[in-house]
Design goal:
This protein is about 30% helix and about 30% strand. The protein has about 280 residues and is an alpha/beta fold. It has one domain: UDP-N-acetylmuramoyl-L-alanine:D-glutamate ligase, CATH 3.40.1190. A nine-stranded mixed beta sheet has the order 5-4-1-8-9-10-11-12-13, sandwiched between helices. The chain has a four-stranded mixed beta sheet with strand order 3-2-6-7. It is globular, with a radius of gyration of 18 Å.
């Protein structure tokens, strides 16, 4: 099995304060610098679950980009990274006392990936390509993502889309995203409850298989609720990507949506018990 994703590979700076932040003063915190980006995280989790994975991305011609690429490859991900003059993107993630996250983003080089940057051989043999909505919100990356989908479809591969961000959806326009989904025709669509609520129609009308991620409450797959095992939430960053990777692997392996959801919530529960967006 070969799963691919197209989109962001960025630097995550995760900050978990030990107590309430003090304005204009110091607050002790656990700070972790590591790899992030929804597309990259999906591939990292797929590789950790024993499947081949391939990331198509764009990073800066800088130390951060080279380091992030090397880390992914060390974890078993095949990376096709276009080098750019712009810096590699970065995201600062502030973890609240209840595990809630506040994020400040600088997408950097990733959104500049162009259709002409893609090589057909990158998509040969791909069983499923995962497209975060972050890859659809801005051009030229959006055109590159559509082109990648077309190439995977030519090889009879499947397509999954994650709606990614409520703020991103609102800025992009939910009706416009409806048109985008009608164009791409994803086989699988992922969203959080808030992202699903931002869309003009119910999730089940947007793709043959839908999964709404509910955090500690589990998920709703094709209208049916699936409970999550209990987990100590340390950092939810990347848990949705772990869920998506596990779900897609199960579907491509021939499992039904409910079994895929049961597998995915178990993987996501393990993901929230550690700091950072990637497998340990």
């Amino acid at each position: 099995m070969l799963l691919a994703a197209i989109g962001d590979l960025v630097l995550d700076i995760t900050i978990a304060p030990h107590g309430e932040l003090r304005t204009n003063d110091d607050t002790p915190a656990a700070i972790r610098v590591g790899g992030g980006g929804q597309a990259a995280n999906f591939c990292a989790w797929a590789a950790s679950l024993g499947e081949r994975s391939r990331l198509v991305t764009r990073v800066g011609d800088d130390d951060a980009g080279r380091r992030l690429e090397a880390e992914l490859e060390a974890g078993g991900v095949e990376v096709h990274a276009v080098r750019a003059a712009e810096p590699t993107g970065a995201i600062a993630v502030l973890i609240g006392p209840g595990g809630e996250r506040t994020m400040a983003t600088q997408r950097g080089a990733s959104v500049g990936l162009r259709r002409d940057d893609l090589r057909p051989e990158w998509f040969v043999g791909v069983d499923l390509i995962h497209v975060p909505a972050y890859s659809l919100f801005r051009e030229p990356l959006a055109t590159a993502a559509r082109t990648a989908v077309e190439m995977v479809r030519l090889g009879r591969g499947r397509v999954s889309v994650d709606l990614s961000s409520v703020a991103g959806l609102v800025d992009y326009g939910p009706a416009r995203m409806m048109s985008e989904l009608a164009r791409i025709k994803p086989d699988i669509l992922f969203a959080t409850a808030a992202e699903a609520d931002a869309m003009p129609v119910a999730m089940d009308g947007l793709a043959p298989v839908t999964a709404v991620k509910l955090g500690a409450a589990g998920c709703i797959v094709c209208g049916r609720r699936i409970a999550s095992p209990a987990a100590d939430v340390v950092d939810p960053t990347g848990a949705g990507d772990a869920f998506a990777a596990a779900f897609c692997i199960a579907i491509v392996s021939g499992e039904g949506p409910q079994r895929a959801g049961e597998h995915a919530v178990r993987v996501a529960a393990a993901a929230v018990a550690k700091v950072g967006a990637r497998p340990a």
